[in-house]
Amino acid sequence: MGEIYLITGLGNPGRQYEQTRHNAGFMALDVFAERFNLSWEKWQNDKGLLAKADLEGNTLYLLKPMTYMNLSGHAVRGVSSFYKIKPKNILIIFDDMSLPLGAVRLRAKGSAGGQNGMRHIIEQLGTQDIARLRIGIGPRPEYFEGKDFVLSKFGEDQKILLKEALIKADAAVYDFIVGGIDAAMTKANAK
């Protein structure tokens, strides 16, 4: 029998945040869900959107928390607790302005690194042993405040690099589930 996995993309709900840099995690899940023809359903009174798939003998849940990003841990803890998903089988996807646009980095564990959604997830699950996939949205221009930058939309020329990053993220999610974190990191982090 296979394992149960939870892949969570971080973002902010609402039309005003669609296609913003801060919603790269949501965008990555949309690419994966589209590839496997998955549909989203409301989970626990709008606490999140959830999609389910069977992949290579494993059960997979995709989650978009519908709280604001800094409270994402509530939905992650709720889904992982309900479906009895081990922290080692959880992957969190989010934007990172310290990485250049188009780059992705996969890590098996670590601190939140200043990402408030990841910080809340670590607090709620009580462990830093949670895989995370960062999608580069940087660099931030000097004239932009951090908050304004992450809530801005991608320019037309930037969407090509974004698409490349989302394709890499899609492959990393698949590799994480099918081959495990070490194999997925080797492939995703290759230059």
Category from helices, strands and their pairing: alpha/beta
Q: Per the principal axes of the C-alpha atoms, what is the gross shape?
A: globular
End-to-end distance, in Å?
Answer: 35 Å
Strand content: 25-35%
Radius of gyration: 15 Å
Summarize the structure.
This protein is an alpha/beta fold and 191 residues long. It is built from six helices and seven strands, in the order E-H-E-E-E-H-E-E-H-E-H-H-H.
Task: Give the key terms.
191 residues, alpha/beta, seven-stranded mixed beta sheet, 6 helices, globular
How would you explain this protein's 3D organization?
The chain has 191 residues and is an alpha/beta fold. Helix 2 runs parallel beside helix 3. The protein has helices spanning 24-35, 72-82, 116-125, 146-150, 158-179, 181-188, and strands at 4-9, 41-43, 48-55, 58-65, 90-100, 104-107, 131-138. The mean pLDDT is 95. The chain has a seven-stranded mixed sheet with strand order 2-3-4-1-5-7-6, sandwiched between helices. The chain is globular.
